[in-house]
Structure formats: structure tokens, C-alpha cells
Amino acid sequence: MGLSFDKIDGAAWLTFDVLPVATPVSESERATRLANPGFGRVFSEHMALVRYNEEKGWHGARVESRANFPLDPATAVLHYAQEIFEGLKAYRRDDGGVNLFRPDANARRFRNSADRMAMAPLPEPVFIEAVEQLVKIDRDWIPGGEGSLYLRPFMIASEIFLGVKPSAEYIFAVIASPVGSYFKGGPAPVSIWVSENYTRAAVGGTGAVKCGGNYAASLRAQAEAIDHGCDQVVFLDALERRYIEELGGMNVFFVFDDGSLLTPPLGTILPGITRDSIIALARDSGAEVREELYSLDQWRADAASGKLKEAFACGTAAVISPIGTVRSVSGDFVINGGAAGPVAMGLRKQLVDIQYGRAPDPHNWIRKVI
Ligand SMILES: Cc1ncc(COP(=O)(O)O)c(C=O)c1O
User: Fold this and answer.
1) Residue 7 — pLDDT band, cuts 50, 70, 90?
2) Where are the domains of the chain?
3) pLDDT class of 2 with cuts at 50, 70, 90
């Protein structure tokens, strides 16, 4: 079965060959695996694959049974970490159909990531087609209720060569993992540790793109957060070590007593799609949203004076997590009495209702796959 689609970037054409798994998982076994999937440990049955080399460009697009990648020990990605990825979700609507949320934005960010990492740019329609094909064939793996199918597109440098240079070959793949509701019984406020020993990104570095190396470099700081009894780490800017940047895997917002919101400006942080969506929704409701530097000292002072009403983190996985407690070597402070606030909760509901197709979609963010 082949599915062709329109011209890509005015040059290439791609057809995905769809090769369904020979022996599908039984319905009862699937139900068992979907009952309590947690995050990132249960996988659907297929994957999408597209290969790149300099001679053929992007080619060999297919959807097939999920399987190991045989990798020569000298494969470039294993040595110099030329790797990028994305994260987005497919949501089951009440009418049985399936929504993707802003896959075009993930495709664009993926291309930007490829550009920064000197990797072959994947045409955005190929990214979207790969994701859609996988969602269609693995639709039965989308949990109901507040669960979703987490999609993980990624690209690795697959040339077998030990020289330090951009790879001449790449593998793009998409895998899918059914996930439960991130927080059972509603989002619990998180505690965060301010990392003053480690930074995440410097001007001119790779902080604004989604490469695996960023996450490897954040793990020590995240471990330090856990050691201090916190859920997550928040990073400061690398230059002055004063300004709040973002969490290990989420952007951050602050809500003030005049109803305005502030979020750190783009530059060294990841341009989150949830961040962008929250800015739009907050502005739709008439709130002022500033993209400005905000220092740890100011944060502490505003929490103490009552000027700061709420703080929350946001990203695809958890949508919005209220921040209840902030810990650092220079002392701890609590926000909104450690409880979830109405602005965070209201924005969260608005966003989730759009994602699941329960509310109108004024910005055309939803792409109905089924
Ligand atoms: C470092 C970092 N910041 C922010 C985000 C949030 O981005 P998004 O809203 O696109 O999921 C993520 C998650 O992908 C991330 O890894």
C-alpha cells in the first residue's frame, strides 16, 4: 500500500510504503498495556522511517513494524551526538477521531534544529506525513480519557565514519508511546531547584534547538534538584547567572497581581509550542504578556511582596504545572501558598479542551488525522 502526497519544497516527492506488522498484538494484550502506561515505557507496534544520503536525498519512506536499528559501532551519532528530536501528541476526540496539535510547528522547529546541528533539513510535509501515517496505523494505541499518544520524531547521523564533520547520511524516524494523564487528579504543584552550579545554554550555543546533547548536559543539574528534594531544575542564564531561563524540559511563566504575565524571551531557551500557545490564549483573553528577562532576585522579592501571584511551567508532556516551591542555595520561597493558581488552571483547561476537540480552535491549531 503506497500513499503519495504533494510536491515537497518544490523539488522532492515522497511516497510512504506502509507495511503493517505481521502478527498484531491481541486486543486484550493491548488493553493490558494501555491500562496504566505511565510515560515513555509502552510503545505502539509501528514506526515511520525515512533515510537520507547525499546521492539520493530523502528516500525509502516507509511505515513498518517497530524494530531495533542495527548500528555499526562507528556510526557518527554514537560519537559526536549529531541527533535531534521532537515531542508532540495525538489526542482522541469524543467522536472517536484523532487530533494532532500544531504538528506544523514541530516540523518547523525540527528543521531549525537540523540547521543548527548541520544535519540534512527534513522537508516539513515529510515530517507531518510520517507522523500522520504512524498515528493512522497505530490509532488503536491512543488511550482514551485524558491519555494520549506521545509521538517522538527524531533524526540521527548514520554515516559510519569517525571524523568530526557533518554526517553524509541520516535516519529520520517516528515512534509512538501511549501515555496516561501526566497528573492523576489534576496537576500537583511542583517544587523546583535553581541550579547555580550548572547552566543549560549560552548565547551562540544549542539551547534554542532540540538536540539530545542539551538533555545529557542537564541531567547532572536535574540530579542535584532531586538531591535537594525538588521535582525539577530551573536554569539561570549562562552569562550573569541572574535571569530565569527555563526548566530542564519546560518553559516558565509568571503571573502578577495586575493580571499580566511574563515569560523569559527567546534566544537561548527552547521556543516551546506550549509557551507560544499560552501567550496567544492569554492575549486573546485581554491579558498583557511580556517576553522579558526576570531575575531570581526579583522573583523572590515579588513572591515576598505579593506582587507575584502564580508561576507555572509548561510543555507538551505535562501541559501546565504550577510551581509551588522554589529552592536555591540562597534560600527557599513559596508561591501562592504552594497551591495551584486560577490563571494556570484556567489556561490549562483552555488548552486541553482545544487539544481534545472539546472547544473551538480559533487559531487553527488542530489537525484532524482521523
Ligand atoms: C528544554 C525544553 N523547554 C521547553 C519545552 C516545551 O516545549 P513544547 O511546549 O514545545 O513541548 C521542552 C519540551 O519539549 C523542552 O525540552
Assistant:
1) very low
2) 2-179, 190-355
3) very low
Residues facing residue 88 across a β-bridge? 151
Mutate to test the pocket of ligand 1, among 270, 273, 320 (most ligand atoms within 8 A of CB): 270
**DSSP label at residue 49:** E
- pLDDT tens for residues 257-291? 999 999 999 999 999 999 999 999 999 999 999 99
Residues with catalytic annotation? 210
> For domain 2-179, which CATH number applies: 2.40.30.170, 3.20.70.20, 1.20.1250.20, 3.30.470.10?
3.30.470.10
Report how far ligand 1's centroid is from the alpha carbon of 353 (Å): 20
The β-bridge partners of 253 are: 312
Task: Report the alpha-carbon distance of residue 137 to residue 47 in Å, rounded.
Answer: 9
Kindly list the protein residues whose Cβ atom lies closer than 6 A to any atom of ligand 1.
Answer: 87, 246, 249-251, 270, 272-275, 315-316
What is the 3-class SS of 56-70, one letter each residue?
CEEEEEEEEECCCCC
Q: Which residue has the least CA distance to atom 2 on ligand 1?
A: 249
| Amino acid residing at 122 | L
The pLDDT value recorded for residue 314 is: 98
What fold does the segment set 190-355 form as a domain? D-amino Acid Aminotransferase; Chain A, domain 2 (3.20.10)
Check pLDDT > 70 for residue 55.
Answer: yes
**pTM of the complete model:** 0.96
